[in-house]
Amino acid sequence: MQQFDNASAGDIVLSLADRIIENRAYLSEIDGKIGDGDHGVNMAKGFGMAADRIRGNDMSLASAFDTLGTVLMTEIGGSMGPLYGIMFTQFAETIEASPSIGADTFGAMLGSGLEGIQTIGSAKVGDKTLLDALVPAIEAFNGANAAGKPFADALDAMAAAAEQGRDSTRDLVARIGRASRLGERSVGVLDAGATSCALILATLASGAKQKLLKSATAGH
Amino acid sequence: MQRFINNPDEVVEDTVKGFVKAHAGIVRLGSSNPRVIAARHAPVPGKVGVITGGGSGHEPAFIGYTGRNMLDAVAVGELFSSPTAKSFLDAAREANGGKGVVCLYGNYAGDNMNVKMAIKLAAKEGIEIATVVANDDVCSAGPDEREKRRGVAGEIFMWKCAGALAAEGASLDAVQATAQRAIDNCRSIGVGLGPCTLPAVGHPNFLIEPGTMEVGIGHHGEPGVRVEPLKPAADIARDMVKIVLDDHALAAGTEVVVLVSGLGATPVNELYILNDTIEAEIVGRGLTIHKTYVGNYFTSLEMVGATLTVMALDAELKRLLDVDVDCPARL
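YS: structure for the whole thing
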């Protein structure tokens, strides 16, 4: 069974931060079309602050997620601070007790992140929010895992579904958050939250796959 | 962009620092959180704490309404972005005199989420937070969806009534009920003539074509109900009064309070030009104006535009609204 060590995987969160920071201007630009234009700025600020606290501390994936979630929740605010904050702290709580992370643990982690988001937000799939990337991605991951596909393939399915979900937001009318005030005028533009969510999930997938490769070559 | 800023990412820090220096006799920074402004006198033992919070860029809202007979503490967010749950929690801590805290805020997705989380965190330390969500902006949703409407300048009257009642020693339930009635009695409308720019973004976050105006615009540039050619002030004022009062069936003889606020970059004299017709229209509809406020009370960075808020009074609201306050904003 494919799995990777929790203890040495905290650097996956550093690559999440790198990707978000690289896309600071892009995320703000998308957000600027139907929102405030500060999504990239706020995300880069939060992920950057978390990376500074993680870097050099040899953290487990659970601790790194907890650090990221706590920074987002306590220091970023807006809508994305609490939503991603609760998602990552839930991720952390779910995997905390698992020394190695296999597909079942990973699937449980994704599910509890989604539950966390749903306790504070009221969006549904189709409302043009990050859920349009997250929900199909989780379904794809669980579907592949239930079908007996290897962990790495399930991660690929997750990333692909997230990107498809992100693209689906282009044709959606925003029903929640600041863009919802635009109604029909929000059609034709990607949702910034779905875009950052797809970026996060794709980076998470490639980070986890690299860890799986390392575990395999190390003879785990 | 011609702005008085240092680092665009530190606009809020720098604003708060200057604010606290300017009004040191009335307010102070939160004891453990620089994103909280508290009244010097807070917390008052045995008094319901009255707090709010919201994104920055609306000064003098929200922080400028901290003070005696007004807000006890305010959670401060990034420009146009909700404060964190922790800042709402810390504001509640600063305001908590042992009788509960009422959080009176606007109906924005981020604020709703962060307040919800703050309520849970506060409950763990035995602080009860009751809430009232303002929804006075008429154009932000239809009359059948009032619960979706945004809170705008009517919040000032809600804070003023609730702050005065709390100072009299009223219970949490009473303060919450009065705040709810105060905001239920408010209707607001914004008209935008020019956009605003978040310094860290560097370009306007929406556009208003020269020669046009956006009727029903929101406090962050949320689109209004229509874009039309710019008209003489008297015509715009008549439209504003019509939109506000058509949504609010008030009996002839009802006493009202009027607030005409600039959105940041409109000269104050133009607000008086608007008010000339606004008052005439309101009186023409058989209402009695108890008091009028004209100035920059609730802004949106350097947006060009104005808002009108009309609040209907009953005996209690009138009494509370007339209580003197001591806060940085002029009220």
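YS: worth flagging: The mean pLDDT of chain A is 93.
IM: good catch. Also The longest helix of chain A spans residues 192-217.
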